[in-house]
Amino acid sequence: MSSLQARPADSIILTGLRVHANHGVFDFERAEGQEFVVDVTAWLDLSVASAGDDLAATVHYGELAEEVVAAVERDPVDLIETVAERVAETVLAHEPVDAVEVTVHKPQAPISVPFGDVAVRITRGRA
After folding, report:
1. 42 and 9 Cβ atoms separated by less than 8 Å
2. Is Lyase included in the keywords of this UniProt record (predicted)?
3. Buried b (16+ CB within 10 A) or exposed e, 16-43
4. Interval 77-123: pLDDT, tens
């Protein structure tokens, strides 16, 4: 059974993290930048933290949010797929996290037709 199938039912969820960054395949995206919106669900066992009211037994969601934003802001890449992978690696660097789902939205994507959202979603777990 993979770690994705066996993930705990407990999770920390961050939604709508807004980040201005310079990702994209077009020169104007790299020069001007644009807003990206990131959602993260980190699966981990929260029973020890909740039973002991112990922050050290969980992941500090405020610090995690700052780390996710920093991961999105750093060196520009072409694909939001790459941004999503970078965020997943950042979240999985926290030992209590067993699996993570990351969605990167690109609400100002350069698409020639009207649209509501463009997003990439990935799910990663510990090997």
Report:
1. no
2. yes
3. ebebebebbeeeebeeebbebbbbbbbb
4. 999 999 999 999 999 999 999 999 999 999 999 999 999 999 999 99
Answer yes or no: are the C-beta atoms of 7 and 98 closer than 8 Å: yes
Containing H/E element for 61? Answer: helix 61-73
pLDDT over 70, % of the chain: 94
Is pLDDT of 127 > 70?
A: yes
Contact 72, 85 (CB under 8 A): no
Domains of the chain: 11-125 (3.30.1130.10)
Give CA separation, 28 vs 24, 57, 107, in Å.
9, 44, 16
Query: Which position among 7, 105, 106, 124 bears the catalytic label?
Result: 106
Q: Is 105 exposed, middle or buried (0-12, 13-18, 19+ CB in 10 A)?
A: buried
CA distance 21 to 68: 12
- The span from the CA of 104 to the CA of 59, in Å, is 21
